[in-house]
Specification:
InterPro entries: Ester_Hydrolysis_Enzymes, SGNH_hydro, SGNH_hydro_sf. It comes from Cellulophaga baltica. One of its GO terms (molecular function) is hydrolase activity, acting on ester bonds. It holds the Pfam family Lipase_GDSL_2. The protein is of the alpha/beta class. The protein has one domain: SGNH hydrolase (Rossmann fold), CATH 3.40.50.1110. 43% of the residues lie in helices and 14% in strands. The protein has a five-stranded parallel beta sheet with strand order 2-1-3-4-5.
């Protein structure tokens, strides 16, 4: 089991405090978690109004960081389904796809051991302007993640990569000024893919 990265402790504590009062334990729960592309999806609960959706994303995290905080960010809420967005910062930190996949495998195993009925959807690491130079590494990781999902029960792969491209070129109007994070238009595209995995 990965040790919790102390760097994220305050942010994780703030997320827990927020949902202490907002989370209704009597209702079915869907958790979205992972790095800042989830954290900055401010309209998540409005985009899926028929569900209790919690956003426990924490900015700058890598797969190993989520592994270290599964209890606080996932298990506490006993979700029937978990959407995970990780791998983006792993690639930017020069980790190889094999190493990232190994950590994903540990993460999924940890979730299944906690509750074997939990369904998990891995959201593909997305393309972006600022990290376009790594596109080959992203595509390789996404192929591995897709195969990994196909080989495991209760595990699905939501491909947001393709919809963010047009004729293999990145749609640059989906991003805010940093060239990494998405604007409202980008999240609308994500919603169009992810809504099919909610139920």
């Amino acid at each position: 089991m990965a040790q919790p990265n102390a760097y994220f402790k305050d942010e994780v504590t703030a997320i827990s405090k927020k949902y202490d009062s907002l989370w209704d334990s009597s209702r079915e729960t869907i958790v979205f978690t992972g790095s800042s592309s989830v954290r900055m999806w401010k309209t998540l609960d409005q985009d899926f109004p028929n569900h209790q959706v919690l956003n426990t994303g924490f900015g700058g995290s890598q797969t190993i960081d989520l592994l270290g905080y599964t209890k606080e960010l996932i298990f506490t809420y006993r979700p029937k389904k978990v959407f995970i967005y990780e791998g983006d910062n792993d690639i930017s930190s020069k980790k190889k796809s094999k190493e990232i996949l190994t950590t994903f495998s540990e993460l999924i195993e940890t979730i299944k051991v906690n509750d074997s009925t939990t369904k998990v959807v891995i959201i593909s690491p997305k393309p972006s302007i600022s990290r376009w130079k790594y596109k080959g590494k992203y595509k390789r990781l996404n192929r591995k993640l897709k195969r990994f999902c196909e080989e495991n029960d209760n595990l699905e792969f939501a491909n947001v990569w393709d919809i963010m491209l047009e004729r293999k070129q990145l749609k640059k109007d989906l991003f805010i000024s940093d060239g990494l994070h998405m604007n409202e238009k980008g999240y609308q595209l994500w919603h169009s893919v992810i809504k099919d995995y909610i139920d």
